[in-house]
Each structure stands twice: as C-alpha cells, then as structure tokens.
Amino acid sequence: MNKQDMPSFLVFESESVRYAIPTESVDSIFWMPELSPIEAAPPWFIGLANWHGEVVHILDLSLRFKHSPRSYSTLTNIILVSAPQMRCGIVSDSVMGLVDVPLESIVKREMVMPSDFSTPYADLIEGEIKHEDQIVLLLNLQKLLTVQIGDDASTSHGESELPSTKFLAEHNEEIFRARMHQLAMPIIDQQEKDRDGFAIVAIGEIRYAIEIAYIAEFAHLKQCAPLPCCPPYILGVINLRGEILSVIDMTTLLNIQNIADKRDIVILQFESKRIALAVQRVEDFRYFDRHHISALQDVEDQHAQCKSLLKVDDGVAGILDIEAILLSSMLEIEERI
Asked: Residue 202 CA to chain centroid, in angstroms?
C-alpha cells in the first residue's frame, strides 16, 4: 500500500487509555509547566499556559470523561493541538509516537456503536484504530474542543468544585515554574543554532545531563524482570511495546550510593544500540547556551562516565558519555555455565 494512502496519527496515553489524533492537528509537545488558574470554564480545563506569548487552555481528558481529579508529575506532557475553533493543550501521561495506519484499520464510531447509543460524551470518540495488537480510540478534536452553552462549569450532584492543578512532590514546584517561564519566551527563528538540548535527570540524588540526540523517549519503570548471570548494574529487562530492552542501573557504574527508588527510565539509542537507563526521576528537558558547557577539571568518581559539565541553574550536572556507555563491552551479557 502506498504510504500516501495511510493517514498518520499521534498516539498517546491518558490514565492507561490510548488515544489517537491526526498528526496534522499537532503543533507542539512540551512538558507540563506551572499553570495559571482559570475561572468560568468547564472543570476539564485545568488552567492556562503562556505558549510563547499565546494564551492556551489546557484540557485533561480524564476529567472530560468524568474520571476523578489527579496530580501531575514532571513526566506529564502537554500536546498542543489546533482545531478550527481554538488551539488547546491536551494532558498526556505518555506520548507513544507517530503511526501510519491503513484505512482498513480505522473503524468509524457508527460501525462499532448502536445508533441509539448516547452518553454526554460519546460523540467525542470518532472511531477506533487497530494498531498492532491494540485498540486505540480516535478522538474527534472538533467536538472535544467545542464548549457549548450549558456545558457544566462546575461539578454536578452538589459535589464541591474540583481542586486546582496538583503537582507531585513539593520539591518539583521549582521545575514546573521554570518550565512556565521558559515556555513564555519568544520562539527563536533559527532552530536553536547556538544551543543544545539536554534532559536533566537525578541518579542517586545527583544531577546528570543527557543530550537530546541520544534520547528516543521517556517512560515510567514498570515490571522490570530480573535476569540471571548479569552484573549488578543490569537491573533486568522490560517489554516496551513488544521490544525487549535491558535496563541499566547507573548508580553502580557511577560509584554512587544505590537509591532503590528508580521510577523513571530514559530510552537511549546510538547506531544499533538501544537500552533503558533507570533514574530516580526525569527533572527537566530544555535548551542551554553552549557557553554553559565546560570541560571536566577532575576525575571524581561521580563523573566517571561523563565527558563534560553543564551549568544548570546554581549548580552543575555531568553530561553522560552516552556513546561510551552504549558501546562499552560491560553491557554485553556473557552467560557461562
């Protein structure tokens, strides 16, 4: 089949439910910033963001579909989408990526729902997409972003109003606030000519930086299966959408105290090598001027796998040498009986 006959969709996850939206409707994807409060709007609009000078409403699908209020973490994404009536940000727990779908794999709503089936939000789902072995719900963006007169601006049945946006862990408030300020900055015409992008991660409560060129995606660490005959810096393997990846615990390689709470992973790729790096948390993702990068002045243990230093706010983060880590013979498992 010609690829031109295969519509493209962005697939993402919210509250363990997978949704799809047409790729041409997606303007940008960014980390959840601190949001400004919003009044006189339906409760599924959780706040306002300043996107490079434009005020954007942020919508949480879980609230739109009447789920309970929840908190947001540093890994929460916002997908900026455009429809004829407005531009809006949609909360996403995880962005799965772009997929090209054959037309026969797209099932319209009227083909899977009885004609007399109706709920207050049934028309928000345009259909279903059969992708690999999963069913993905296709959102109707035009209906989703249409607020009609009479739409509830408060909770029903006498319940109290929904609480304001909550963020996980108080020490992350500075991260959300820094993102808010960065998101409000004007867009640079030239694609970050003199700036490099880094993910800032915490490993053993020490900050490290990972260059954007080596990052495939971020995810939460779930169901890591241990492997026999492995060195201590290999936690085990995970199944990431059918792909088996080794999970590396950098605390051992970096000779720092091993902290058991590793909740996030960074999927790294260089050439044919691909692994998951376990970290305590992904703190931020942003661009830095290159004069913030400096050479290593010592060989401290915590910089053993680093190639340079990055000035971050009031401190420094070691820039991990991803190529050396991925190409190292240490990652080759040799089982001998």
From this structure: 16
Q: Is the pTM of this model over 0.90?
A: no
CB 203: neighbour CB atoms within 10 A? 23
Distances (CA, A) of 336 to 246, 247, 327: 19, 21, 22
d(CA 202, CA 195): 22
Whether the CB-CB separation of 19 and 117 falls below 8 Å is answered with no
CA 322 – CA 327 distance, rounded (Å): 8
Whether residue 17 has pLDDT greater than 60: yes
Instruction: Report the C-alpha gap between 277 and 182 in whole angstroms.
Output: 26
Contact 152, 63 (CB under 8 A): no
Distances (CA, A) of 6 to 86, 265, 308: 27, 32, 44
What are 120-167's pLDDT values in tens digits? 667 788 888 887 778 899 998 888 887 654 455 444 433 434 445 565
Residues sharing a CB contact under 8 Å with residue 138, sequence separation 6 or more, in sequence order: 9, 19, 20, 21, 106, 125, 126, 127, 128, 129
